[in-house]
Amino acid sequence: MLGLEWILFPPGSIIFLTVLAFAISLAIIILNKRTIDYSRLRELQKIVNEYTKLQREFLKDPENKKLKRKMDRIKPQFDAARSEMTKMNMKPMLYTTIPILLIFWALGSFYSEIPVLILPFPIPFIMGYFHGNSALSDQTLGYLGYYIIASYFFSLILQKMSGTSLTE
To answer: Closest by alpha carbon to 148, among 21, 24, 31, 29?
Structure first.
């Protein structure tokens, strides 16, 4: 029988956190797929990208009146597109924020000072974000750092597989 000790220390903690990262990423992708209209989101993204491209061009040539008029004409569409995109992306967050915070609050009580993964080299400029005031070294990832890396990896793969990625 596998006890609590098995999931607290490597290799059990790595397996547990990897499965947890995959499960949460999958749940979020499924929720996003059900609550976000990705074809509409891609249309809005094109409007935002077009306006942003014009802004960059205008910064290079601020005297270009034709470009300025074009930007002024597109600006209302840009503002509306950004607003609609924000609303679309906020909807799934309403369902996921509190459960995820509760999960990490619970995990923090078990894993706060337990090293999950020891890296072959120190990464001092990143480690403060992954384990704050913890006693873990710059060469060690705690549960949060490991989860963030695993979750990011799974999210990229699952987004591509499910068609929810905005990049094509």
So the answer is: 21
